[in-house]
Each structure stands twice: as structure tokens, then as C-alpha cells.
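A further point concerns the way the authors explain their paired sequence and structure data. The central task, working out the C-alpha cells from the amino acid sequence alone, is never made concrete. I therefore recommend that a typical entry be quoted early in the introduction. An entry of this sort, consisting of the sequence and the corresponding C-alpha cells, reads as follows:
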Amino acid sequence: MTAASIVRIATLALAFGATSCSKTRDLSAADFDVYYFLPKESQGRVLGTVKGLEACGSLAWSQARSDMAPADSWSYICCLVEAENRCVEKHR
């Protein structure tokens, strides 16, 4: 699966309300794909895969600082990765 395909899937998941926030899972030890969105881009960018929800947010904020993007001009989602499923749940 290409990065563009993963971004499309994540975008659709957001648009159609993918599941979110598992209360029973240890999210600090889970793997997440980090998706970063700017309004001037037609699709988001995959920044990479990290371990832990906190690391996901940190990577997105680091990218925003690198892009010198104002806080209200970008967004991100963290997609929980389980085996072959690249976006089981979305988190922030």
C-alpha cells in the first residue's frame, strides 16, 4: 500500500467517522501513523510511524514548527496501527 493510499484512507476515515479512543488500550505503547494536514495541500502527508500517542502529537507539532505554520492553519491525526490495519482508530 502506498503512502498516498494510506492518506486517502485516513481522510475517508475522518470524513465518515472512523472509530476513536479505545478506553482499554495502552496508547503509550501502541504504534501510530502520523498524518499532517495543511489547508494549501489537497491531501495530508504521512510523517511516519511512532510509538505512543504522545510521540504522535510531538512529531506533528515539530513539523508545524518546521513549516512555520500558525497553530490554526494545520491539523493532524494519529492512526492506530494494528498488524495490517493502518488506521484502526483515530486519535489526537
About this structure: The first helix runs from residue 3 to 15. The mean pLDDT is 81. The beta strands are 31-37, 45-51, 75-81, 90-91.
